[in-house]
Amino acid sequence: MKTIWMAALGAMICGAAASAQTAVMTHAELQSVNSTGYTAWVESPTSFPFAIRGVIVNDPEEMLDPTYDPTATAMGYTGGMYQVFFQAVDAGDRGGTALWMAQNYEAMGGWIPVGNDYGADWTNEMRRVQYDANGRKFRKGDLIEVTARKALFYGGKRNINENHRIATSYDFDVVLVKANAGLPQAEAVTLADLKNADDSAIFDATRATGGEHWQGLRVRLDGIRLATTNGWGKTNWAERICTATDGAGRSLPLRMPLTDLGEPPATSAWFSAVGILNQENGYTNGYELFVQEIGPTLDVGTHVAGRMAVSFSSDYEGYVLEASDDGLQTWSEVNAMPLKVIVIEDDGDAPNRAYRLRKVD
Known about the structure:
Helix content: under 10%
Structural class: mainly beta
Number of domains: 2
Mean pLDDT: 89
Largest sheet: 9 strands, mixed
Number of strands: 19
CATH superfamily of the largest domain: Nucleic acid-binding proteins
Low-confidence stretches: 1-20
C-alpha cells in the first residue's frame, strides 16, 4: 500500500473525500488471502483511513432493505440494512468489495456494547451514504471513491463497514467521481470455472483461478439450470437461495434479489444469470452468485420500417442469434448486421417532457 498526496490526482477525483495523505488501497490488496483462505492483508495502527475506488454494481435495494424500522429494538432484529458492492476499474486492480451497515448493531449479539442502535437517525445515515453532495442518489454504474475507517474480514472477504459501531470515527464516506460511468462488462463463467468435478470449490490463494478470481465481480454464469426453486421470490436473506446445476454434478447457490425476476425458469430449461459472485461463508468455499438478471432475454418488436427488431443485453456478446420459420423444428443463424442502439434511462418524470439531440461543441 502506498501513500500519495491526493491533490496530485487533480480533476480525476475532484472533490474526493480522502484527506491530503490518505492511503490509496486496491481491491486486489484488500481482498488478498493466504493458503487457508484467511485474509492476507495485515491491518496496522496506520492502515486507516484509506481511499478505494470502483464502480457500483448493485443498488442497495436489490440486496437488503435499508428502510428504517422503528420496531427494530430487540435483540436479533437489526432493522434496516444496507449493502453495496463496487468493482475495481483502475489499471492493475481486480476484484470487488462490499459496503455494509445495519440500523441496530446491538441485535447482532451481546459482544456489541449498548448504545450502538441508530434508532431514527438511521434515515440520516442512509442519506449520508446513498446521496452525493448535490442530493443525487448513487446508483449502479456510478464511479465512486470510498474513504474507509474500518474493514472487517468475514465469510471469506473483507467488508468495509463501521466495525458494528455508530460512532462517527468509524464512518465510511462515499463520494461521486463520475456519474453513470457504466457497468463493467459481466465476465462469462461456467460452473466448471468455479467447481471441481466432485462439486468442491476451486480455491486458488493467488486468485488467478476459481471463485477467488471472480469474487466481488459482475459475472455471467452460463449453462445452468435450476435444481431447486425454493428461494425464488423470498424476502428473508437466509431463505433467498436456489440451487443451480450444470448437469455434470456441479452446483452453486443462487442468492435471489429483492427485485422481481418474474417466474423462475423451468428446471429443465438451460439459462444464464448475471450477478455478483459473492463469498458468503467459509474461507476456501462458500461462493455463490447474487442474481440480478436472468437471461439471455430477447426483446422482439417491430421496427419503424416494418422489419423485426431483436435486441438483447450486451452482456450476452458471444451468443449467436438464430431464427426458426417452421415452428421451432429447425434453426438457422440470422444474417444481419447489428445496429448500435443507445438507451438512456432518464430520471425525469415530467408528463410532457420532450427530447432532442444537440451536437456537443
